[in-house]
Write a structure and sequence with these properties.
Layout: E1 6-9, E2 16-24, E3 29-33, E4 39-41, E5 48-55, E6 58-61, E7 64-73, E8 81-93, E9 98-108, E10 114-123, H1 124-129, E11 135-140
Antiparallel strand pairs: 1-2, 1-5, 2-3, 3-4, 5-6, 7-8, 7-11, 8-9, 9-10
């Protein structure tokens, strides 16, 4: 049985922390535990669970933004390979109990705002079976500017 592991942003200092999730119903606070005696209060809106997926030997959590490079044949010169980065958000579907990679692109709106435009969802197990998972987490949807 795999370990159930979480990450979230601490209330103070405002940084990412890994541990085991604990909700104290008496004082209605959310914590991550490092061991039986060390607990750190977290922002529950940023709570992300590890679903057993690793990239480049690192745990990947719900909400992580993942960059995966694919080799694609160039249409300019025969035999030239271009490495193209694709961006995905890791998310878990409670209905079918499957972890997905949701492909997205960054779009510049008319008012100058940058937003994520979601394209398609891929079950992460399908991508692992095809051997295309060789990427890294480059951020999380809960990161703040400057992280």
């Amino acid at each position: 049985m795999r370990e159930v592991l979480f990450k979230a942003r601490l209330i103070e200092p405002d940084e990412w922390f890994h541990g085991h999730y604990y909700f104290d119903g008496f004082c209605e606070k959310h914590y991550l535990l490092r061991n039986e005696t060390l607990k750190f209060e977290i922002d529950p809106e940023t709570l992300c669970q590890w679903r057993g997926v690793d990239l480049s030997s690192k745990n990947v959590f719900d909400g992580d933004i993942v960059s995966i490079d694919y080799d694609e044949e160039s249409h300019v010169e025969e035999g030239v390979t271009n490495t193209v980065p694709y961006l995905f958000v890791v998310w878990f579907n409670d209905d079918d109990l499957t972890t997905y990679l949701r492909e997205f692109v960054i779009v510049d709106t008319e008012d100058g705002e940058m937003i994520r435009d979601y394209i398609e969802d891929y079950p992460i197990s399908d991508m692992c079976n095809k051997g295309v998972i060789d990427g890294k987490a480059i951020g999380n949807i809960h990161d703040k500017e400057g992280d």
